[in-house]
Amino acid sequence: MKWLLLLSSSLYLFGGFRRPFLIAGLAAELAYLALRAQELGRLPLVGPHDTLVFFSASIALMALPFLFAAPLRQSDRFNWLTGFTAALFALLALPFRSFNMPLPPILDIFWFELHVALAFFAYALFAIGALLGGLFLSRNERPLLDLQYRAALVGYTFFSASMVSGGIWGYYAWGTYWLWTPKELWTSILWLFYALYLHIRLKGPQWERAVAWGGIVGFGVTLFTYLGVSMLMKSSHSF
């Protein structure tokens, strides 16, 4: 089935030239996830392989409304950046072995799946916000900054809902809504960072470049929260 990931990555990269290729790449990746879900009998959300694929598909999926927004309708650069980012994480998934074992009881629960899916939707929107911030810095077009803010705001909403569902999952799994693990600590840092970012946007035009850079830095914090903590620190949330 991994040939579908290679196909989707190729289509994503061609998406910079023709938008239908980007959509076709998403369709191929969603087909891969559907086959994995059918094989496992659950959403593929455990392990670096499945989470990287889910992250890649989330980026392409969440980018769709932005592809047709007025400031980006004719922007091949945004198409290419989106396709490259989605392809990058899909290709990063290939070296990792897929996790096919039955889930332990603490993960085999609806709140866990909801928590993880919402988190990756938020991560994807933070990634799109970073791309839009980079475009704003190179082109200095105010509508791009407005779109970046919208991406961050919706992502922040998804991430807040993910934290709530994660607390409920934690209660069922460990009998408490919160454990001070490295993952939860960095989750809090990420949430507070974007809360600050959304408020800086209200400071006025003189803060526009700072806001654009904030979205880029925020995605760096996002990647460390997702990958850095799991790879460098011991945590009950490691993948």
TrEMBL record:
It is a multi-pass membrane protein. It comes from the Bacteria. InterPro entries: Cyt_c_assembly (IPR002541), Cyt_c_biogenesis_CcsA/CcmC (IPR045062). It is found in: Membrane. The chain crosses the membrane at residues 51-71, 78-96, 116-137, 149-171, 177-198, 210-233. Keywords: Cytochrome c-type biogenesis, Membrane, Transmembrane, Transmembrane helix. Pfam families: Cytochrom_C_asm. Its main location: membrane. Residues 59-234 form the Cytochrome c assembly protein domain. This is Cytochrome c biogenesis protein CcsA. It comes from Geomobilimonas luticola. The gene is ccsA.
